[in-house]
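Title: Request for sanity check on cyclin-dependent kinase prediction

Description:
We are preparing a figure and want to confirm that the structure record we downloaded matches what your pipeline produces today. Could someone re-run it with the sequence below and paste the raw structure tokens into this thread? We only need the token string, no images.
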Amino acid sequence: MKSTFTSLTTNVTLTRKTSSKDQVNVVMSPEPVEAQGPGILNQDVDLTFARKTSSKDQGPVMSQELGEAQLRGVHPVDELEEGQLEEEQKVKQEASPVKKSRWETGLTSHKEELISHADDVVPKTSRWNRSSLSPECGELVVSEERQCNSSGSGSRHQSVEKLSGNEYSDNEYFSSDHDELEAEEPASPAQGGMNMLLGSRSVNGFQKLNKINEGTYGIVYRARDEKTKEIVALKKIKMKEDKYEEEYGFPLTSLREINILLSCNHPSIVNVKEVVVGGRNDSDVYMVMEHLEHDLKGLMERKKQPFSTSEVKCLMLQLLEGVHYLHTNWIIHRDLKPSNLLMNNSGELKICDFGMARQYGSPIKPYTQMVITQWYRPPELLLGAKQYSTAVDMWSIGCIMAELLSQKPLFPGKTELDQLQKIFAVLGTPTESIWPGFSSLPNAKAKFPTQSYNLLRKKFPAISFVGGQILSERGFDLLNGLLTLDPEKRLTVEEALNHSWFHEVPLPKSQDFMPTFPPRR
Ligand SMILES: Nc1ncnc2c1ncn2[C@@H]1O[C@H](COP(=O)(O)OP(=O)(O)OP(=O)(O)O)[C@@H](O)[C@H]1O
């Protein structure tokens, strides 16, 4: 199928700032820029927007047929090391299970490329993500512009704490993380160029109906496609407009989100149809997505009763299937929470907001721990681990399962310390014997109140004398397996999907019989 993206209309030059944050400036440029070679989806350098080619494709696809945007940071190192990078990328692609055709190009940190090892091993078992957790000396921490707040919106950390020795110190935590982020960035601005939004339509082809929500990185509208009359969701990417601010321009997290979502093709992942431009000087960028009437956060706030067990099973299965697709394709979402789970009146659940998602390789590289909205953030990240993997998403899924069952957040911590305390108060304070390696995590030296037992069952009883929600042995086993403190022992997405809870009565409700809800205002 030929798409509207095939002709070049707009070229955009991205200027990488010296800031420690992922932020690029978008400048219109009249010159087409040649497409660069392939790279894994990652941090800095290359980006291709490419639409999946066929609705028949179930597996991952990445093609140049539809949209293409090329972001190429021409940092001096990139130029000097081009040959070397190509060679290393070839090695990586041969090792990677993500098809070359899919991740034709991506955001690739030249630094990560330079330090990538030719002997990267692709694990073969379902636990590949665990067995490869080995520290790599001298690697750089990937900086993330986007950071999370405690509950829902994903805005930046306003206050952060560090568990240092026996106490928290705000400054120490911030400065150590900040230093690492600074170290990752080039010392001088890097110039780059990209072909972007090839032949993309104008947003004028859409009638905005109402604003659905405003998040940190985008304003989401319900809109009608004038051509097809279809109702869609338009997410306008928020630019940082103050030129005198360090962070200025087009957020790299948004480029990453667009790239990942365009390449994904799964019923549990929100479908991005195209990218359109418009607004002043045609410089605003919008993602056109399928529209879903609700998100789970809003639904749970409005519902009078929690979801029934069979409804929770239906939602959990869809969530797990979407995350299975991501993890199989080496993508960690890193911000799973109810407001990022959309639901429609056909009982479908779809994961959205991939601004924090990233593709990763094996062995695991150190990433920033400032990901995942605090209430859904796993203990290893709260304790300062920089090497982590798909298990972080599994913790968030455990928190979501608990919330679906009880209709209230499981660990609504106010600060990071409070978050850890709330977790340990329910699941028990970890020791070296139950979580080997725990005591060497950066923030583990703090004095936590000692709680010797796991009290999760008290929150989710098998019998209720007051008519509350009950959870069977198997259901509890799944929940407890997801909420395992040691990420090495936490259930993988495959293990969760195959869990016997989904096979006992009440069986998962069919999507067709899921309840419908009035549209949100
Ligand atoms: N395709 C969609 N259909 C309907 N509503 C949507 C869609 N995508 C997003 N939304 C709504 O908009 C909200 C914000 O979207 P999204 O999380 O993608 O934006 P964001 O700026 O990245 O937000 P955050 O600050 O939470 O990271 C979602 O919680 C959801 O309510």
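Thanks, this matches our download. Residues 153-155, 212-213, 215-218, 220, 233, 235, 270, 289-292, 295, 339-340, 342, 352-353, 355 surround adenosine-5'-triphosphate (CB under 6 Å).
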